[in-house]
Amino acid sequence: MDRLDDLTVLVEVVDGGSLSAAAERLGLSASAISRRIAQMENRLGTRLLARTTRRVALTDAGATFCLRARAILAALDEAEQALTEMNEEPRGTLRITLPVMFGQMLVAPLLPSYLKRYPGVTLEASLSDRNVRLVDEGFDLAVRIGRLADSSLIARRLRSMRRRVVASPGYLERHGTPQVPADLARHDCLTLMTGSGRPEWEFLVDGVRETLRPNGSFQADNLWMLRHAAVGGLGLVRLGDFIVEDDIKAGRLVPVLTAQELTDEAIHAVYPATRHVSPKVRSFIEHLLAGLAGLADGEA
């Protein structure tokens, strides 16, 4: 077996929930599967699976590796499938779900040209900031912002992203500029309303993640309203760069704590793992990539 076979073995073990299930699907013995996993772990220098008497589960390192493995296998499938589908036009209903602000600001302008190019596709777009369960809710594709945790989905990176903490020049003149995340305890922080209380803001301090729950006098369930509140001088807000980039360039908002911003977040298109990706899903992802390519990476 080569390394691509190794990736297939790992994904089959995860999907089947056990070594024996993967062995049955691949036509191998359970001992052969166990040996392949052990060889991978030795080569990588880390444990990928946590084994129990009944089933196996991914370690944190295994979850990250499995996510990449699925993407590699999916890319190979897509390359092979593309050769046989070069003349197949995308068609049918494509159901997508998008974060509200990203959908409104960056995706909506790209939709007319997509539908003109592929008249056989009927597009249904839902804007929501909640983490939609694609298969259960019947969606073909989602755009997700931030670090991905679900290794059962295939992910295609669309662009990088940073969450910027910003405030108006007037607010900073009146209240001072925070120098470290702990200083936020003395500031008015504008936060997004969630069902689990005030959201956490994450920072990277001396190479270590630091999490805090900021407090303030204003909350909203809409990011654009929070952006308006910050421009109006009500306090500090933490928003994706694509939302506030124009305000920063125009001087309406000033970024703070820039040295502590996280650098490992991105925006991905995700879709359920299948043997073959439909032309409508593939064409839409490629259209997004082409449309966003005109923007500098990490800028709106």
TrEMBL record:
> At the top level of its lineage, which domain of life is listed?
Bacteria
Arranged from A to Z, the UniProt key words for this protein are: DNA-binding, Transcription, Transcription regulation
- A Pfam family annotated for this chain is HTH_1
Q: Where are the transmembrane segments?
A: none
**Domain HTH lysR-type, chain residue ranges per copy:** 1-59
User: Which example biological process does GO assign this protein?
Assistant: DNA-templated transcription
Is Plastid one of the keywords?
no
Q: Which InterPro entries match?
A: LysR-type_TF_proteobact-type, LysR_HTH_N, LysR_subst-bd, WH-like_DNA-bd_sf, WH_DNA-bd_sf
Single GO MF annotation: sequence-specific DNA binding
Keyword Lipoprotein among UniProt keywords: no
Similarity-based family: Belongs to the LysR transcriptional regulatory family.
Specify the protein name.
HTH lysR-type domain-containing protein
Q: Native species of this protein? A: Azospirillum thiophilum
